[in-house]
Design brief:
The complex is a heterodimer of chains A (236) and B (289). Chain A has 236 residues and is of the alpha+beta class. Chain A contains five helices and 14 strands. Chain A folds into two domains: 73 residues, Gyrase A, domain 2 (2-Layer Sandwich), CATH 3.30.1360.40; 140 residues, Cyclophilin-like (Cyclophilin, Beta Barrel). Chain A is 25% helix and 30% strand. Chain A has a five-stranded mixed β-sheet with strand order 7-6-13-5-14. In chain A, strands 1-2-4-3 form a four-stranded antiparallel β-sheet, with helices on one face. Chain A has a three-stranded antiparallel β-sheet with strand order 10-9-12, with no helix packed on it. Chain A is elongated. Chain B is mostly beta strands and 289 residues long. Chain B folds into two domains: 169 residues, no CATH class; 110 residues, Cyclophilin-like (Cyclophilin), CATH 2.40.100.10. In chain B, the strands form three sheets. In chain B, strands 1, 2, 3, 4, 5, 6, 7, 8 and 9 form a nine-stranded antiparallel β-sheet that branches. A seven-stranded mixed β-barrel of chain B has the order 10-17-14-15-12-11-18. In chain B, strand 11 and strand 12 form a beta hairpin. The longest helix of chain B is centred in the N-terminal third of the chain and has 10 residues. The radius of gyration of chain B is 20 Å and the shape is elongated. The termini of chain B are far apart. Classes of the chains: A alpha+beta (236), B mainly beta (289). The interface between A and B is medium-sized, with 39 and 29 residues.
Chain lengths: 236, 289
């Protein structure tokens, strides 16, 4: 593994991989995270993830020398050849009418019809790298390259809850209303984050996400079911 | 000892009044920030004076404070930002236990010095505990700030098992005069040239008007050529450098990941000091080696 370790504070350190968004890096990060959680249950308070780094909050203070020893130990972790198992979740999205807020603009930017934009947004199985930005916000990799779009230079003051949007090389769903700089293509009627559930999200890191187009009638139906707590996200 | 559920009625809500404790931990993997009181030092003071558990929930106020009516007996204490407080029109001393009787009226006026004022209450507030914390946060707790006419629950203890302590506790105000903020080098610090290291560490930065529970922006810009980073973990106290050269210090409600280079990390105690700075006040960063 090509990794570096940096001690930020005596109780905060970061392990980083080369700067890229890749499924291989993700699987190595998951292996290392598992190893650390198993071997240092007591010593680690929390592990946060980004695309290419694990950040460790420690219970105890450690020195530079101890951090170097830890790096050697991590280097020696045997990576499983088997790909860790993951689920494929299907998330309904309505791209119609009022929900496709920025669809027309995106269609013009890329010189593709709105139908073609939707088709290209629906085709990949996206990989869930980590949660961040907002409670329950998934960082999803695997966007069709032709849909890569720079973020809005002036973020919107308010993006509705459930918005399915693209920004840079990523796509994601806003679980709650928030300011946002991504381009909104549609809306998901299902609540994907519930703090009263344990865990508060269904999809876990390394799971896959596929979007399914629904029309306005289905949207209303699913929204009502979700509100009544009668709809669960589907996985294979 | 009988504890009676009682309510504070908010005649006026104040500008930015919320319930906070020391925060909600261990849920960053789902994108949930720590939250919690901006100035943990002030919370420690009010809870210590009231003999509360150290994580008892307190009222956090900023800008203009609220006007409140209490249903039943309790005790309250103010600390943090310096504020004029009146109990039934009579001024109340900072850092002193105030005995509250039924229907007492408490008015918290405009904050004079500092950014966040705190009111501790005997036993702490009895608002909803969500994921082991009472700190209000959008999308997590039912409320995010107090509105006019709302109430907040506390447990009144009419019979006291100890006499009110004559606290001679003096809250030090020199705390507010500290302008040196201690920092550690952040993950991307080494990517900056030496020249910019010197500039950042020798410069006085003014706090801008853009300050809230999520982040404090600084006014002076540092022009640089750092590439953006891939979204990476950040914490309260992480200092981000934006492409336009603006420095943004993440505070208690800051998101758990960010895409700007993380040049510095504010030391824990210094984050409390920084939280009490107001727009136009100057700070300098001192590196802990």
């Amino acid at each position: 593994m090509d990794i570096k370790l940096k001690l930020i504070q005596s109780r905060l350190l970061e392990i980083s991989w080369p700067k890229e968004i890749s499924p291989k890096t993700l699987s190595e990060m998951i292996e290392v995270k598992r190893f650390l959680e198993k071997e240092y249950t007591e010593g680690i308070k929390e592990i946060r993830m980004g695309y290419h780094c694990l950040s460790l909050k420690l219970q105890i203070e450690i020195t530079k020398e101890e951090a170097e020893e830890l790096l050697e130990e991590i280097q020696a972790v045997k990576l499983e050849i088997q790909v860790p198992t993951s689920k494929l979740w299907t998330i309904p999205v309505c791209y119609d009418g009022e929900w496709g807020i920025d669809l027309e603009k995106i269609s013009k930017i890329h010189n593709l019809s709105p139908e073609e934009i939707i088709k290209r947004h629906l085709s990949p199985e996206y990989l869930l790298y980590f949660y961040g930005f907002l409670p329950g916000f998934m960082y999803l990799g695997g966007l069709d390259e032709t849909l890569n779009t720079p973020r809005k230079s002036n973020p919107d003051r308010s993006v509705p809850a459930g918005s399915v949007a693209i920004g840079g090389k990523q796509t994601g769903i806003y679980p709650s209303e928030s300011p946002g700089g991504w381009h909104v293509l549609g809306n998901c009627p299902i609540s994907i984050f519930d703090i009263n559930q344990n865990p508060p999200v269904k999809a876990q890191v390394n799971d896959k996400i596929k979007f399914k187009a629904i029309d306005l009638d289905e949207y209303k139906e699913l929204k009502a079911l979700s509100k009544a707590g009668k709809y669960q996200l589907q996985h294979d | 000892m009988i504890k009676l559920p009682s309510y504070i009625h908010f005649v006026q809500p104040g500008l930015m009044t919320s319930v906070q404790d020391l925060g909600r931990f261990g849920l960053a993997e789902y994108g949930i920030p720590y939250s919690g009181a901006m100035d943990r030092y002030a919370v420690a003071q009010v809870n210590f004076i009231l003999r509360n558990p150290k994580d008892a929930a307190v009222l956090e106020m900023s800008g203009i404070g609220p006007e409140m009516v209490f249903e039943h007996e309790t005790r309250i204490v103010f600390a943090g930002a310096d504020t004029e407080v009146y109990l039934n029109q009579k001024p109340v001393k900072y850092g002193q236990i105030v005995d509250i009787k039924p229907d007492d009226h408490v008015l918290v006026k405009k904050i004079k010095k500092g950014q966040w004022a705190y009111m501790g209450i005997q036993g702490g507030f009895e608002t909803e505990t969500v994921a082991e914390s009472k700190s209000w946060f959008e999308g997590i707790t039912p409320r995010t700030r107090v509105h006019k006419g709302e109430t907040i629950c506390y447990l009144s203890e009419a019979e006291r098992y100890y006499h009110p302590v004559e606290t001679k506790a003096k809250i030090r105000s020199d705390w507010f005069r500290i302008s040196k903020i201690k920092v550690y080098p952040g993950p991307e610090w080494d990517l900056l040239p030496q020249l910019l290291h010197n500039r950042i560490l020798n410069k006085a930065f003014r706090i801008s008007d853009m300050i809230d529970r999520m982040a404090y922006q600084l006014e002076e810009k540092i022009s640089h050529e750092l590439d953006p980073i891939l979204t990476s973990p950040v914490y309260p106290g992480t200092v981000q450098l934006t492409p336009s050269g603006k420095l943004i210090v993440l505070m208690r409600d800051g998101q758990v990941t960010g895409g700007y280079p993380r040049i510095l990390q504010v030391e824990n105690a210094s984050l409390n000091v920084l939280s009490q700075k107001t727009p136009k006040e100057k700070i300098t960063f001192t590196l802990i080696s």
